[in-house]
Amino acid sequence: MSMVFTAKEPALLDKAKVGDKIRFHAVDEGGKLVVTDIQPAK
């Protein structure tokens, strides 16, 4: 299964690179899942 997310602010994507384990918060904005926060997973 795959899901599509959109970053609320493109600068959020600078916090992670491919392969990083992250935690994120997403909200539903008109049927689109929008990431509002990204943090490294502990």
- The total tally of domains equals 1
Structural class call reads mainly beta
| Shape by Cα distribution | globular
User: Mean pLDDT, rounded to whole units?
Assistant: 94
Helical amount = under 10%
Series of H and E elements: EEE
Straight-line N-to-C gap? 24 Å
Strand order, sheet with most strands: 1-3-2
Work out the oligomeric state of the chains in this entry.
Answer: single chain
Low-confidence regions: none
The number of E-state strands comes to 3
Architecture overview:
The structure is a single chain. With about 40 residues, this protein is mainly beta. Helix content is about 0%, strand content about 45%. It has no helices and 3 strands. The protein has a 3-stranded mixed sheet with strand order 1-3-2, with no helix packed on it. β2 (about 20-30) and β3 form a beta hairpin. The chain has one domain.
Keywords summarizing the entry:
mainly beta; 42 residues; globular
A few lines on this structure:
With 42 residues, the chain is mainly β.
Give the topology, please.
Layout: E1 6-7, E2 22-29, E3 32-40
Parallel strand pairs: 1-3
Antiparallel strand pairs: 2-3
